[in-house]
Amino acid sequence: MKKTKHQLVFLLFLASGLIMQSCGRDSVTLESLLDEMVDREQLARLPEIPYTLKQFSSYDRGAVAPGRPGWFANSDRTMFIREEMNQGRKEYVMADTEGPGAIVRVWMTFAGENSGNGILRFYFDGDTIPEIEGTAFDVISGGQLVGEPLGSSVSDLSPYENRGHNLYLPLPYQKHCKITYESNNITNYGNKGNTGESVYYNINYRTYPEGTAVSSFSLERLKAASSKVEQVREILLKRETGLEKLNLSVNEIGGTIKPGKEWTAGFEGPSAIRYIRLQLDAENLEQALRSTVLKMEFDGEQGIWCPVGDFFGTGYQIRPLNTWYARVDENGTMEAYWVMPFEKTATLSIMNTGGQEVEVAGQAGLSAWKWDDRSMHFRSSWHQFTNIFTREGMTAESEGSPFDINYVDLSGKGVYVGDGLVLFNTSYIWWGEGDEKIYVDGEDFPSHFGTGTEDYYGYAWGGRSKRFSNHPFIAQPDESGNAAPGYVVNLRYRILDALPFNESLEVDMELWHWHATWINYAPATYYYMRPGGSTNIVPDTEGARAKVALKSTDIIPNRLKNGKIEAEHMAFRNSCGNRKGSMGITPFGDVPLSGNLRVVWQDGQPGDTIYFNFVSEMEGMFGLQADFCNGPAFGRFKALLNGRELSSGILLHSSSPSMRTVKLGQAMIRMGENTLAFVVMPGQGKRHLFGMDVLLLKQE
After folding, report:
1. Cα separations in angstroms, 52 against 46, 199, 531, 680
2. What is the domain range of residue 212?
3. Whole-model pTM?
């Protein structure tokens, strides 16, 4: 048929419209990524433009495979892809990747004099001139590119140079991206020695399918998008929920829930839960926050099984926080803003696994949702490693090693969107040297291999870090157990760094504690999955029921058994500040120990005291003796029990490491709490190390 001029014009117009629609659908820009960042609905659907998420980092290159030497190597600094000369400059390459893609998260921290002031450069699409150039501090968190919270450092209670520096401003590229660092302070490239500047980094980047149209980042485009950048910053800073734009159905939640019972409500779809708000009241609130479980099903599939406090990011103690997805106020009101769609039905249950009545009050807000083939169910899993020992394979001949803890394994298609970690540390030193290892779709080697648990959660220098809860995507609302016995909460919510998988996902974290001890370690994970997906984590009712730890003796009982107690089982402290690393539970080289462990104290000076508390169910006069560590650096001590002197001449100095049993004398043991103290005495060199293995009591 002969086409008229008008028909040809119409066909050309139609074709151009289709092309424009296709380009619009397949294009990635700075603005589109910023819109994605503040659209909570987008995480509840498979990505419209598929992508993979991977990570560059300074992880220790000595780690090559599970089971091989070096798998838990910890020299994860100043490791680069290569060094190269650019226009006469020596630059260390941190990232080098083909497009189309986008950098979606950069984290860095540094150590050494004048560190962090080297020049960070971003090269796009093969250009030999960097588009971004400035000191690392200025570029990432100093406001050179963008202000809070897209460029930030945490915690603001820590010195600036000791913070974790986080850049969340997306940096898209069409063809290629290379990131380098230049510093004349680097003398240990490849971690050769401990001198010079140490550089730690994690860089998350997306890669889109070949042919995806991406508008590469430039400072000119950043300037053109300034109103969008400011709009997104404002939304994030105010934690805007957008609920006022929805036609919400608000449902009341709760009542009095007796032990072993649960409260349940059902909802009809298609719909989506937009927020959940809860507050608990119980005689023992800490236990209630852990033993009261939020349980949800979507379209007949298990979606959420998580203790209430852990789900909202506060754990079993109320700690105020204000993030994009979870909020907790000082009064104990907890809110979550995950979008939870379902096609036909959903049930929300609150289950009391504990031994006390719990009063629950709250709301769930729902709105319309169009279920389609990209829609996913929200899921959350939780489990606790209760009283877990921090060294694997420890014997009288071996100090043991760190090991990998599994957060979650997933089978199916979905997107991993965050996790939280609640733990109780029992030692006076940092617990979290462990790196994340994330395997996507059956990888043999993890495409995400990190540099430390604190780095994964956005902060730095774990034992010295301070609490923070004022960033939308990361938080540490309690840090009191980072370098002393105490409670810790870490959170990370993934938005642009959400992690898609097509077949499977394995999320592991090394448990790499500086001391051999027992701790409680409870990860909660958040993810979306298409119907039919599954997880390896089963409901951990026993973990939810377990008594929560508020002091170290809740994990390591300090009770005499048959007239004997290991030193590491007693609650111990010292008079000079319990400084990080000053005391600990460790092996003693090749010297055999009872239980393979001892308590060591290494920073005492004459007059300083170490105290050991133990509980006795007996009362009366007993003869006390203890096994002590001896060696060239060990000192002289005076012993007291419940304030009364036992012995003033305990000499632990010897020419070589050994063990020795010392009779401390007779003393009255009280029913209940007793305190055994050792005071450093002068006259035995400059160092005054103390080490005790076991205490023995014999009835006189």
Report:
1. 12, 26, 21, 59
2. 28-238
3. 0.93
